Automatic annotation (TrEMBL):
Its main location: periplasm. Residues 1-20 form the signal peptide. It comes from the Bacteria. One of its GO terms (biological process) is alkanesulfonate transmembrane transport. Belongs to the bacterial solute-binding protein SsuA/TauA family. It is found in: Periplasm. GO terms for cellular component: periplasmic space. It comes from Phyllobacterium zundukense. SUPFAM superfamilies: Periplasmic binding protein-like II. Keywords: Signal. This is Solute-binding protein family 3/N-terminal domain-containing protein.
Amino acid sequence: MRKLMLALAATVVFAGSAFADPVRISVGSYNLNNLPFPVASGLGLYEKEGLEVTVENFASGGSKTLQALVAGSTDIAVGFYDHTIQMQAQRKDVVGIVLLARNSGLVLAGGKNSTFDPAKPETIKGAKIGITAPGSSSDFFVRYYLQRHKLSADDVSLIGVGSGSAAVAALEQGKVDLLVNYDPAATFIEAKGVGKILIDARSDAGAKEIYGGIYPTSVLYATQAYIDEHPQTIQKVVNATVEALEWMNSSSPEEIVQKLPEAFISGDRETYVKAVANAKPIFSVDGRFNEAEVQTPLAVLRSFNDKVAATEIDLKKTYTNAFVDKAPRKSTN
């Protein structure tokens, strides 16, 4: 894992006093929802913007990345939008500055011996369910599913197994009966014959079936204090990210994978390319937050998070399109 962290960091740390804008960016997972971040790095877009970027806490988990941001040990986090809602419920201003993934991309997969049948939700009782980490969106996915079907988290065992190859191994080795995870793990599960996808929220239709609407996930977020103090740095980071999103939208999965650090690619390259192809529809094409779609994670959180349910959440304080709207567009150049 440390080797992977250093490989990614090496692609985005630029030495030299010519770069006036140092910025620390933490990323909590290498699932494909966060893919625009290493793509921006691989394309050299942070360097193009004159940024000196240091990557921290790679693969430490989304909740730990959020903790690092709030503690001030990182400047910007690559994490999930619903964290901004949770932080507002705790009276902390954490703001999404650019949207990476407009849909969750989550799947629920069953191992070879799984007895869970989505047509009979009660059959999930007693299952050991692998999630990326407690407090993650995969955790929310399970809890919301259980609640909708009048079941409780006490009816199952939730086990943090991470993402990528570690998550697939947990399912393959029988450490968990079911796995809720993202690509590339989702694609690897079926490609390697480890199990079968039972619920698929990668498509808009699947997301609406699970959540009742589109569920924006991966974003870049920062504290409001940092945004106020470093607006130029934020703008440069957003500029690079928006350009990466535009490039991804017009590029093939093969071209996208070619721009990634080799250590970032899980499993064999051919299957990873398939995973990128499967995940491609979830990515934002312009980085903008949609006022209607951000209502979905709020509804999910309110269903089981007492603090969020008890707080009057102002969603307009959880994200901003101000920097995205100022980012240069290829289509207008």
